[in-house]
């Protein structure tokens, strides 16, 4: 499965390791800010310094079983992002809108 996010910017503050910032819309209306290397965030090589931002991206994730009913938000899914993608505090599991999760074609 993949969750849909949007990149906010490309940062080259560290010359050896450029990063991208991705905004993941959460089910409660807030936004998670995720930071990682461009190849981790987008396997289609669209995240480059010369790209026109924001760029829509898909983040590989797994849907988690949950006994909590949709985080009190209708049509929400609990997902864990793959490849070590997380927010600044290390959180990689989020409640997202069901409409933002699609089946990946491998």
Task: Name a few traits of the molecule.
single chain, mainly beta, seven-stranded antiparallel beta sheet, 1 helix, elongated
In short:
The chain has one helix at 38-41, and strands at residues 2-11, 19-25, 31-36, 56-63, 76-81, 93-97, 101-102.
List the helices and strands and how they pair.
Layout: E1 2-11, E2 19-25, E3 31-36, H1 38-41, E4 56-63, E5 76-81, E6 93-97, E7 101-102
Antiparallel strand pairs: 1-2, 1-4, 1-7, 2-3, 4-5, 5-6
Report on this model:
- The chain has 106 residues and is mostly beta strands.
- The chain has one domain.
- Helix content is 4%, strand content 42%.
- It contains 1 helix and 7 strands, in the order βββαββββ.
- Strand 1 (2-11) and strand 2 form a beta hairpin.
- It starts with a strand and ends with a strand.
Give the tally of β-strands. 7
Distance between termini?
10 Å
Helical content (DSSP H or I, runs of 4+): under 10%
Portion in strands: 35-45%
Radius of gyration: 14 Å
> Element order, helices and strands?
EEEHEEEE
Q: Which structural class matches the secondary elements?
A: mainly beta
Q: What is the total number of structural domains?
A: 1
In terms of per-residue confidence, which ranges show pLDDT below 50 for 5 or more consecutive residues?
none
State the shape.
elongated
| Arithmetic mean pLDDT | 78
How many individual helices?
A: 1
